[in-house]
Design brief:
Elements lengths: L2 H4 L2 H5 L4 H28 L13 E11 L2 E10 L19 H10 L4 H12 L5 H9 L1 H9 L6 E16 L2 E13 L5 E9 L4 H13 L4 E7 L5 H8 L4 E4 L1 H9 L4 H15 L4 H15 L4 H9 L1 H4 L7 H7 L3 H14 L8 H15 L10 H12 L8
Parallel strand pairs: 3-6, 6-7
Antiparallel strand pairs: 1-2, 3-4, 4-5
């Protein structure tokens, strides 16, 4: 039966208010749930109602149960069996939520709402009570999801991997300290982005990144073609120790920020304009000439800025080895910083977290929420894939 036949104009015209329509839909839903429970019991017992029981176990009347749905709270009749072995899937024993209410609670939590705020929201929107302890129990179910997700196998090859850290305040031994969530995002061979994992450690360090990269390798990653990172001391060497063939690119935007950190305000505009000539140069040799001009003009005032460019020159200019389409997506870590920004947005209401599990739960849910739309290949994927195939040939291994 089509929905327009079931909900005919004549049926709908009888409702004068939204409340009347909601009451009607609740009754339809109640009846539907009860019929689904009857069907589940038929399957459990192996025979339908009014048929003769082929076994010892049989129907044993009904019990009353209040359930909570997106239409509000309602009381239903739950069929029972004599052996008390029937545990329906739609509403398990000791469960009282159906129709995605738990998903709604998890989604609200992922968007940064506190347990008490979610309690208020559910009360206002659905007109029933859900305690903060129940909300915590529901969101804690995600912990098992995190373990499974964090240990899932990864692909053997990623064309690009962006890596960065995001700092949270976490309570430890009665003190609130800074901890870092390490994030890696990979570009797969189908052109889609994938968060490879979240790892919680102390302040960002190249030694902890070693454990992150080792974990990725243990989960099946054999090769990273290009990595894009900030200029954390020792990071490039760490990557090469685990993935020696990787081309390492230090984020130019991070370099610009670091170089400008101590530039006086009156010089900043001209300083950044001159620095732009370096990373916007058409070739690496042109960039080297631009750096020399930059040094002649600014070295007497800001020698540390010129030194930082020269010290990291090879990693800052790795992008010049590639065509423009690839250059645009590897010379900066903007992609992962945008993800970090969304995670920050969803967790900004939490000034600190009581435990490591709490910060991981929030970061995981925020990541899941922020990446829901990562369903399509990146822009210009056909061109970019062909460029990778030309440059890296066998290492791409599309059929692996």
């Amino acid at each position: 039966m089509k929905s327009k036949d079931f909900l005919s104009d004549e049926i709908l015209k009888q409702f004068k208010t939204g409340s009347q329509l909601n009451d009607f839909l609740k009754q339809v839903q109640k009846r539907g749930i009860e019929k689904m429970l009857e069907g589940e019991l038929d399957d459990h017992l192996g025979y339908e109602k009014h048929e003769k029981a082929p076994s010892q176990n049989s129907r044993n009347g009904y019990g009353q149960k209040k359930v909570r749905t997106s239409l509000g709270e309602t009381q239903i009749e739950v069929p029972r069996d004599r052996d008390a072995t029937f545990n329906p899937m739609i509403i398990p024993k000791r469960g009282n939520m159906v129709d995605g209410i738990e998903n709604i609670i998890v989604s609200l939590y992922a968007k940064g709402m506190s347990n008490s705020d979610i309690e208020d929201q559910i009360r206002e929107a659905y007109n029933f009570e859900v305690s903060t302890s129940t909300i915590s129990r529901i969101t804690n179910k995600v912990v098992n999801d995190i373990v499974a997700w964090q240990n899932r196998p990864l692909e053997p090859v990623y064309l690009i991997v962006w890596m960065d850290g995001i700092v949270f305040k976490v309570r430890e031994n009665s003190k609130v300290i800074n901890k870092t969530i390490y994030i890696a995002v990979g570009l797969r061979r189908d052109g889609k982005k994938e968060v490879l994992g979240l790892w919680l450690g102390k302040n960002e360090s190249s030694s902890y990144w070693m454990s992150v990269l080792t974990d990725m390798k243990a989960r099946g990653v054999e090769d990273l073609l290009i990595t894009a990172t900030d200029n954390l001391n020792g990071f490039t060497e760490t990557i090469r120790n685990v993935f020696p063939q990787a081309t390492t690119q230090i984020c130019v935007v991070h370099q610009i920020r670091n170089a400008c950190r101590y530039v006086v305000w009156k010089d900043k505009k001209e300083f950044t304009k001159d620095m732009k000539q370096i990373y916007n140069a058409p070739t690496k040799s042109a960039a080297e000439a631009a750096l020399e001009d930059f040094a002649v003009k600014w070295n007497s005032k800001y020698s540390y800025a010129i030194k930082s460019w020269r010290d990291n020159w090879e990693e800052l200019t790795a992008f010049f080895e590639f065509p423009l389409e690839i250059r645009k997506i590897i010379y900066t870590t903007n992609l992962i910083e945008n993800l970090n920004g969304k995670i920050r947005k969803y967790t900004k209401n939490k000034l600190s977290f009581p435990t490591d599990d709490a910060v991981m739960k929030s970061a995981y849910l925020a990541t899941r929420e922020a990446t829901r739309k990562w369903t399509m290949p990146i822009k210009n994927w056909g061109i970019i894939l062909n460029q990778f195939l030309t440059i890296f040939e066998e290492r791409v291994r599309l059929n692996a």
